[in-house]
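Form P-L/3: holo structure prediction, ligand NAP.
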Amino acid sequence: MAARVIDGKAVAAAVRERVAGEVAAMPTAPGLATVLVGEDPASAVYVRMKREDSAQVGIESFHHEPAPGEVAELLAELNAEPRINGILLQLPLPDGVDDAEMTALIDPRKDVDGLTPLSAGLLAQGRPGQVPCTPAGVMELLAHAGVELEGAEAVVVGRSQLVGKPLAALLLAANATVTHCHSRTRDLAASCRRADVLIAAAGVPGLITADMVREGATVIDVGTNRTDEGLTGDVDFDGVSGVAGAITPVPGGVGPMTRAMLLVNTVAAAKAQLEAVP
Ligand code: NAP
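OUTPUT (holo model):
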């Protein structure tokens, strides 16, 4: 039987509606600063879409395009600006400006991407904090699809700071038994076949094939790879659909959720800052 397709667009639309309701009930619209550095066309498109999403739910966005040498100074200004509740520094930064070094300059209270060392540390310790948007979106998709994580075998392929590591931490916090795979994993297929929940976040088109998937497993494809055939995931969708119980498509799976979770994080940051005002 063909796998159930988990519709990320629909779940993201429901998240946006929920966020719009929360924003409407707030005394002032949350403010999101978007920071775009350099000329990368894909980054420019992502930032534009994030600003459009923000406008749609009532979040006010403030756009900045600093020169590479001005990023640190701008982040300091945005940290101090009360109108700004969240700071989105679009990564990757151009050569000569270090992603991790600049990200660490963001005030953790405004860290809506959840990538500062403090946010990462809180997540690793299982404490409340800002969670990176893509892993948060994957968890929201799993919840929406009614996937039981307690005691489940979860396998994460990929160990980046942006996706794999935070996702493994979230799955562990949800009481899954987590196996973490990467490029040095000896037998990737054998590890993947253990999974009740298989998350592919390697950036390798078609890496996960049907023979690597246990019958009835839930397969979440984070991969977003631009190929000659267009945008593809890390999962051979057609083959794996014949084995899995549920699967996300690319596009239309995790991607829309990543965008939606930025809005969730921005509202959460704004609410926490409002509550902190004496
Ligand atoms: P990344 O920083 O390049 O990390 C890739 C990870 O996959 C690394 O840990 C690497 O292992 C592992 N890996 C690479 N080849 C492998 C192989 N053949 N077998 C097993 N593991 C392998 O990438 P990322 O930023 O995490 O992104 C991963 C994918 O998700 C990309 O396609 C990216 O475009 C996509 N993405 C999508 C969204 C979205 O919203 N949908 C958001 C973010 C990223 P090592 O650590 O050993 O090198």
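COMMENT: The chain has ten helices and eleven strands.
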